[in-house]
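Researcher: Structure prediction, please.
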Amino acid sequence: MGMPPSTATVLLSSPRESPPSSVERAIRILRVMSDGSKSRLTDIALAAGLDKATALRLLEVLERDGFVARNPQTKLFTLGPELRVLGAAALQRFDPRPVVRPSLMRLTGAFQDSVVLSIPSGSESLCIHVEEGSYPIRANYLTVGSRRPLGVGAGSLALLAWMTPAEREAVLEVMAGQLGRYPRITPALLQERIAQARERGYALLLDVVVERMGGMAVPILDADGHPVAAISITGLNDRILAREAAMAQALKREATVCQVLWSEATRPAATEPRPARKAAPRATPAPRP
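Model: Predicted structure follows.
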């Protein structure tokens, strides 16, 4: 009799996918609505890969519980107040913005182009802050709440490049079927740019996601060397290439500052030793008469 398959073999095999549950469908809807660009039922259903009837049923449930709101006149959907409560609770635990925003402001002031803060979210990067530059032509294709597959954009490429090899391999496998929207990005291109980023210490991606525009980015690493966020400067290709060395130096410097501050902000508070308890004085027996 043959040996039973190991747990790893079972997990890595590709069984027939079961239909997504209602919870998974609802999560898809919330994700596609997260950047604010999808508000019509038709657009939400299409982006979530659902038929309109199913999408409407789930949206009505989410609306009833406050996770989605619907304008009675326009019939457009937006994220509801309950998500803001959940988001605030989550950010109390992990919010790099207070630590990183001074660096974003310094970079915007130095180079006049917009600076973006992104964090990893599964196999995607999530934009959580944009510091707008003063230069008239801006790379405004990234907004707060927008998601990209890791590797699509300078910031998400920096997150991908500094993951462990096993994590990168898993992400690239997941992304294989998601690159259709980005015809200029291929697995071979990503592998090449990841190697360049590790060698240079910064990620550079130009004229790939949006024509004539791109970005340069560096990761912010935790104490174990894992990327917790990425800072990227976005703008016209010519502006980035003309100042590549200065931008790279400034980005690395600010990333170092952020890493030190992040380490201090997340360090567990030292527990002060309790003072030793003094023994109670013994009662002196009264002298006998």
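Model: The longest strand covers residues 227-236.
Researcher: Thanks, that helps.
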